[in-house]
Amino acid sequence: MSCGKGNHHHGTTSNCVCDVIRAIAEAQNEVVENVCDVSCERSIESLLDPAAANDLNTVPFILYGEDLNPFKAFGIDFQRNKNNMNAPKFECIESFVFRVKTVDEDCCAVIELLAFGADGNQGGGGNKNKDGDTPCDQIDGQKLEDLVATGICITVDLSCFCAITCLPAVSLM
Fold first, then answer.
1. Over 99-155, what HEC string results?
2. N or C: which end of the chain has fewer CB within 10 A?
3. What is the three-class DSSP state of 46?
4. Name one Pfam family in it (predicted).
5. Cα distance between residue 61 and residue 57, in whole Å
6. How far separated are the first and last CA of the chain, in Å rounded?
């Protein structure tokens, strides 16, 4: 059985792993407050908290496919040549980290690739992502303020993903 497909015996849609995890969560909530320091719920609360008086405007996230491998997207931007402004060069941007732009009623979403810029660079044309095959390769050791919007957007079917990790809410230009 693949991810997202329920167990269809006895005319019900159920997932035995989900049922067990739900029971564990309910039992844990009976005895202790379950608060994650970093979670989607916490990031959304930070974004919307009027008492914080912050300029947070984005909840960055990582998506995971049915195989639970992190989703890495690629996009193309162009970089202006400082010596010849009429000769822009293509630049490939890759990222595991995204920002949602829109979601329609069919769970199709437009998401923007986020990258780590340097020296005040705001997105495409200077992506300083580390080479690597995991989100940690991209994120480890990076400065929070260097996370930038690239302006590169892709459309995805959210029903194709089985998990999400939210990063702490940030302020992006």
1. EEEEECCCCEEEEEEEEECCCCCCCCCCCCCCCCCCHHHHHCCCCHHHEEEEEEEEE
2. C
3. helix
4. Spore-coat_CotZ
5. 13
6. 42
Give the span between the Cα atoms of 31 and 42, in whole angstroms. 21
| Segment (H or E) for 165 | strand 161-166
Residue ranges covered by each domain of the chain: 1-34, 37-166
Using the predicted structure, report yes or no on whether residue 77 has a pLDDT greater than 80.
Answer: yes
Q: How far apart are the C-alpha atoms of 155 and 112, rounded to whole Å? A: 9
Least Cα distance to 144 among 171, 119, 123, 124 occurs for: 171
Structure tokens at 92: 């490939």
Written as six digits, the tokens of 2 are 């693949």
pLDDT for res 38: 76
